[in-house]
Amino acid sequence: MAITPPANRLWWKEPIHGVELGWIVIAFLWGLFMFFFMIAWHFIGDQNLSTETYRVKPAAYEEKVAAWAEQYQKIGADGEPVEVEGTPVVAPPEGGDVYILARLWEFWPVVELKKGVKYRIHISSVDWQHGFSLQPVNMNISVHPGYEHVINLTPTETGEFGIVCNEYCGIGHHTMTGLIRVVE
Amino acid sequence: MASIDATAAGSGVVNAPYRMCRFTGLKVDQAAETLIKVHAVTAVIFLALGGLMGLGVALTRWPAVQILPPEWFYLVLTGHGANVLLFWIIFFEMAVLFFASAILLGSRLAAPKVAWLGYILMLVGALMANYAVLRGDSTVMFTSYVPMQASHWFYLSLIVFAVGALISVMVFFATLVVAKNENTYDGSVPLVTFGAITAAIIAVFTLASGAIILIPTWLWSLGLITEIDSLMYKVVWWGMGHSSQQINVSAHVAIWYAIAAMVLGAKPLSEKVSRMAFLMYILFLQLASAHHLLAEPGMSASWKIVNTSYMMYLAVLGSMIHGLTVPGAIEAAQRRNGFTRGAFEWLTKAPWGNPAFSGMFLSLVMFGFIGGISGVILGTEQLNVLMHNTLYVPGHFHGTVVAGTTLAFMAMTWLVVPLIFRRDIIWPTLAKWQPYLFGIGAGGISLFMMGAGTLGVPRRHWDISLADAAHRAVEFPAAAYLMMGLNGLFAILAALGGLVFIVTVVASILAGPKLDGPDAKMVFPLHDASRQVSEYGSEGTLKLPGTIILVGIFFAAFVLYYFVNWKYLSELWLFN
């Protein structure tokens, strides 16, 4: 029994049951397949999270994002800056750098992207850890203070997409959202 | 030399008081017995507290109910994690370690006073953690990611708890040495003890990781260190956080084998294979920290792939092996017990009315199908981005830790009460239904949280309607709301199962029929020793058609679900 010492003192010399051996081989091969499939997806797949990361001081990142937002601030037909609920809308040049700042409790600013264009999206936090959860696409990435993560992102559909924070960040966590617009 | 050794051993042996168990024939050391009782009772108290908090969390996340205000919700969620994931499980695991060493080896417990010191430290730590959380200034979640800061009491409490647990683990190792030196058993240790050794070795690694990260974090909370790097914290913290779940896996797999042996007389198909599978855990489970870093900046893809796969899925292989050998051992035993018709008579005629067996088998099935498969999907480098930090994550680990570990520990408790407390189960009907109530509830919350997670619902979130949000850009689909409601309903079911468990166990301990008399019989009997399974296990002597079919279904589900998720991933926006 499993609660008594093995009846056969030389238990390691017992032959292995055929069913067990067969299952070990299948499970091992399946494990190998899953392992190599992760590697293969880097070559055949279009969804591999970038590892490009820079150390950045939160204050420096905040300044960088503010300067960038001012440069590419979207101006409406009336000559006024376009805003959504008080947050400026920024329309970066096609294929350029995009900066998103996570802080208590918003993702700033609102960005307007073009469908089918690849952007370099920079994400970092200036206070605590946050979670960048793009909905309803359902892409979920962690955001750390002090680390500037650069993701090459190509939107494949148009519309308004929300960012929800999915890393607990204090009492206002459930109010932390952001917005990405994708246009043709 | 031999004669000197013999004399030394003879004079060195401590004559610890013990009794012989009438039901199992095991020699029960009384110091170990008392410690098992105390740890089991303490564990159940923290289960009650943490379970109640869990019900509060589930009812708050049910949008139509939303029972707690946000500050209480986040506070209670922090307490829920600490009380059930740490305190309930680790107190119970210490009882399992004392059982697997002193009792199964028929040995005295090494240094019972030191074991008491370990217990007291753990208790002080657990109470201090609850104090810190209930003060309201440590609402940082169980993970306490920096730079969010808790009260220094919070970090100190976890350090004190970990030190206590480490001391108890050392007493376990010392007991193994005592048993070996005093020749209390013949040959190799039993498989269940081997599993417990696995759990204890992983525990040492886990508690060391905890110390490495929590001590500096504690100093930081006191203002003695200026900064803790958030990424470094996550890597090392999860060396404790995830690896501690691997203690649970080892412990509950050992319990599966123990219950199968005690209730059905099951014997491992092959000692070699089952022990190898445990060895895989020791060698590879510690890499699991990476599961929490797949969506992080700063880690290379090769680091992620090697670590998240536990080095080519070798630890997953260990679990998949147990997934065959545990039902295989049960089928083999049942066939020897006379249930040989068809592929499944061994299963349909199994003692489903015995809560130790039904709890164990439900735990086995749900751990594999719900917790296991979802864990591999979550831990796949690229697929992680689909569910990272969504409710899918709690869905996964309620499948492993609640439907798996907690249910297995509850099943074991139905044996601990008659065998260690020597009190029979006072209300057998309630006990009989308990595993189904709790198991279906736990399975339901796991599945519905996973479902909501695939729809993007975030974890640890008070209000998915985003009523007060900066931008109400996200409208979660009606299906997500339905899932959250169902999650609430099944949480009520699980809570009922938990309540039945606690009330029946406590009442049995206090007032159950005494089992000391020479004619006393257990209401849920152990396997009849006269029908003991004789020799089997060598190649070719045994057919296990039922197990092969079950494992085939499991494998098909696994492969199918794996590729479905890659299909989802390929439809995402492009990123690299």
From TrEMBL, chain A:
Positions of transmembrane segments: 21-44
Keywords: Copper, Membrane, Metal-binding, Transmembrane, Transmembrane helix
GO molecular function: copper ion binding; cytochrome-c oxidase activity
InterPro entries from the UniProt entry: CcO_II-like_C, Cupredoxin, NosZ/Cyto_c_oxidase_sub2
Compartments where found: Cell envelope
The keyword Cell division belongs to this UniProt entry's keyword annotation: no
Domain Cytochrome oxidase subunit II copper A binding intervals: 91-184
Name of the protein: Cytochrome c oxidase subunit 2
UniProt lineage: Bacteria, Pseudomonadati, Pseudomonadota, Alphaproteobacteria, Rhodobacterales
UniProtKB/TrEMBL annotation, chain B:
GO molecular function, one term: heme binding
GO biological process: aerobic respiration
Organism superkingdom: Bacteria
Gene3D superfamilies membership: Cytochrome c oxidase-like, subunit I domain (1.20.210.10)
Regions that span the bilayer: 40-64, 84-107, 114-133, 153-179, 191-215, 247-266, 278-295, 310-333, 354-377, 397-421, 433-452, 489-512, 544-564
One Pfam family it belongs to: COX1
GO CC, any one term: membrane
Limits of the Cytochrome oxidase subunit I profile domain: 39-516
Keywords, in A-Z order: Electron transport, Membrane, Respiratory chain, Transmembrane, Transmembrane helix, Transport
Protein name: Cytochrome c oxidase subunit 1
Organism annotation: Meinhardsimonia xiamenensis
